[in-house]
Amino acid sequence: MELKDFIDEAASRTEACLKRVLPLPQGPEARLIEAMRYSVFAGGKRLRPALFLATLSALSQGLEAEEDAYLPFAAALEMIHTYSLIHDDLPAMDNDDLRRGRPTCHKAFDEATAILAGDALLTHAFAIMMRLKKQVSPQRLLAALEEVALSAGLMGMVAGQMVDMSLTAQAATGEQLRYMVQRKTGALFSACILSAAYLAGAAPQEMTALRAYSDQLGLCFQISDDILDVAGDPDKLGKPIGSDAKNSKTTFVSLLGQEQARQWARQAAEAAVQSLSPLKEKAELLRQFPMLMFSRES
Ligand code: GRG
User: Fold this and answer.
1) What is the pLDDT of residue 128?
2) Packing angle between helix 30-40 and helix 111-129, nearest 10 degrees?
3) What's the CA-to-centroid distance between 138 and ligand 1, angstroms?
4) Which residues, 6 or more positions from 255, have their beta carbon under 8 angstroms from its beta carbon?
5) Cβ–Cβ < 8 Å for 26, 111
């Protein structure tokens, strides 16, 4: 199957599932739910659920029949991603006006509501992931949940965001940049891939391969993101370019220049594919992701 078709299908199934698992705006907290739904249904690429589902299909025999049971977990990963975008856009962080082609959550609602919408998406995501308790053994589910909690939080994305803010005040080295990116961007990609691997009961050798793959994939994605912020098309991106320079951020482009940054992204993409050699032909979809990340336009 072509990756693009797989992602389109995963995105529409995730979207339908998000509609089912997110409550409808009603009751005294209706505005909070409206803000959550506003950001979740703003049209993201749904790459993280697609990576989760592609990893499951690479590791599981005959899982296709059961796949619907795993969709809420995929949807929950997208909820965590959306929470991070809402908080990242806040005035205290990047202070952005546009996201996914429309006003950011705090612009469309207000700052307090946006903070709470992010909080509620993060915590509700864990409640949704727990729904797999009927299908999966407690050991597998707990390992998957631990991976997500660590990667989204202090061992991953939140730590990376903190380091990112501190680097804004000083010129960063390549090492510092890699450290930050591995956490801020890479950790959630890893969480999607490795949580699926735990749920599918991957062998230790497969786990090691997928960890190496995730690290390189996150790096490739972020370098491409940095390139898009200077050379992308604002219409395709759904936001203006130049926000890194505006926020005085050290990026792979500011550090290496566009050409060398592109080379690093390509090398990371190739290394990601190499890492998958223990996974044989069932990992064909996963093998296509790095090049997609490298050549993406949005
Ligand atoms: C606030 C805890 C906290 C974390 C924020 C994710 C993040 C950390 C910040 C977002 C800003 C940013 C540009 C991050 C790096 C790359 C990234 C995550 C881009 C957005 O992901 P896409 O391209 O977005 O998958 P869509 O909208 O398609 O889902």
Assistant:
1) 98
2) 80
3) 31
4) 172, 174, 177, 261
5) no
Domain layout of the chain by residue ranges: 3-294
- Check whether 136 has a pLDDT greater than 70: yes
Residue nearest to atom 4 of ligand 1 (CA): 84
Rounded CA gap, 202 and 53, in Å?
14
Which tokens is 261 given? 């940054």
- The position carrying tokens 């949807």 is 75
Provide the b/e sequence for 34-47 (b: ≥16 CB within 10 Å). Answer: bbbbbbbebebebb
Q: 10 is written with which tokens? A: 């995963």
Report how far residue 113's alpha carbon sits from residue 197's, in angstroms, rounded to the nearest whole number: 35
- The Cα 91–Cα 213 span in angstroms is 34
**What are the pocket residues of ligand 1 if the criterion is a CB atom closer than 6 Å to any ligand atom?**
44-45, 47, 81, 84-85, 87-88, 100, 157-158, 161, 184-185, 222, 225
pLDDT, tens only, 227-263 = 999 999 998 888 889 988 888 888 999 999 999 999 9
How many other C-beta atoms can be found within 10 angstroms of the C-beta atom of residue 2?
9
How far out from the chain centre does Cα 124 lie? Answer: 17
Pocket mutation for ligand 1, best pick of 85, 161, 180, 247 (most atoms within 8 Å of C-beta): 85
DSSP conformation class of 237:
H
For domain 3-294, the question of CATH label 1.10.600.10 is answered with yes
Where does the pLDDT of residue 68 fall: very low under 50, low under 70, confident under 90, or very high at 90 and above? confident
Token pair in block for residue 140: 């597998």
